[in-house]
Write a structure and sequence with these properties.
- With 182 residues, this protein is an alpha+beta fold.
- It has one domain: minor pseudopilin epsh fold (3-Layer(bab) Sandwich), CATH 3.55.40.10.
- It contains 2 helices and 11 strands; from the N terminus they run αββββαβββββββ.
- The strands form 2 sheets. Strands 4, 5, 8, 9, 10 and 11 form a 6-stranded mixed beta sheet that branches. The protein has a 5-stranded antiparallel beta sheet with strand order 3-2-1-6-7, with helices on one face.
- A hairpin with a 6-residue loop joins strand 1 and strand 2.
C-alpha cells in the first residue's frame, strides 16, 4: 500500500511538472496553425486572381458573435464572404489583434527595408485587392497580427503581405523583437 501511495505521489508530481510544458506547446501549435491558415488563404486569393485574370478581394470580417474573425476570398466581388467562397474562422485562444497589442513592427520594417511601411489589417474589418498579376493593389505592405488577447505569454505571429503578393510569417515573444519564420 505504501509503495502504491509513493508511486501515485511521484506520478502526480511528474504530471504537475509536465502539464504546463504541454499546454505551452499546444498554444504555440495553435498560434502557428492560425498564422499558416491565414497565409494560405492569402495565397489562395492571390492564385484565384491570377487564375481568373481579374481582381479578387481578400476580406477580414468580424464573425456574428463579435469576438471571432472570418477571413476569406470574395470571388464574386459582392463585398461579402458567401457560403460557397473559401474562408477560415479565426476563433478560440488565437485571434486577430489590433496594432499596439503585439510588439511594434520596427524590427520587421528594418529587415524589410527602411522605406517600407506596414498597414495593419487586423483588429477591424478590412480588405485587400489582388490584381490579375497577383500583386496587391494598391502597392502597399500589410500586416495581420495573431495572438491570444488574454495571455500574451504565448507570443505573437505576424502575417506580412508584401506588395508583390508574397506572404511571410514572423514571430515575437511578449515584449520581444520580431523574427521571420516563414
Amino acid at each position: 500500500m505504501v509503495e502504491l501511495a509513493v508511486s501515485l505521489a511521484v506520478l502526480m508530481i511528474l504530471t504537475a511538472i509536465a502539464i504546463p510544458a504541454l499546454m505551452r506547446s499546444f498554444r504555440t501549435y495553435q498560434l502557428n496553425d492560425a498564422a499558416s491558415r491565414l497565409a494560405d488563404m492569402l495565397k489562395f486569393t492571390r492564385f484565384e486572381a491570377v487564375r481568373r485574370n481579374k481582381q479578387i478581394n481578400f476580406l477580414i470580417l468580424p464573425a456574428a458573435n463579435g469576438i471571432d474573425w472570418i477571413a476569406g476570398t470574395d470571388s464574386d466581388g459582392d463585398g461579402a464572404i458567401g457560403p460557397r467562397e473559401k474562408q477560415i474562422l479565426l476563433n478560440g485562444v488565437v485571434t486577430l489583434l489590433p496594432a499596439g497589442a503585439p510588439p511594434g513592427p520596427a524590427s520587421i520594417i528594418a529587415k524589410l527595408g527602411s522605406t517600407t511601411s506596414l498597414t495593419t489589417l487586423s483588429g477591424a474589418a478590412a480588405s485587400v485587392t489582388f490584381d490579375a498579376r497577383g500583386a496587391v493593389n494598391p502597392l502597399l505592405a500589410y500586416v495581420m497580427y495573431l495572438g491570444s488577447p488574454n495571455n500574451p505569454d504565448f507570443g505573437y505571429r505576424a502575417v506580412i503581405l508584401l506588395p508583390s503578393g508574397a506572404t511571410q510569417i514572423w514571430t515575437a515573444p511578449n515584449g520581444g523583437t520580431w523574427q521571420r519564420i516563414g
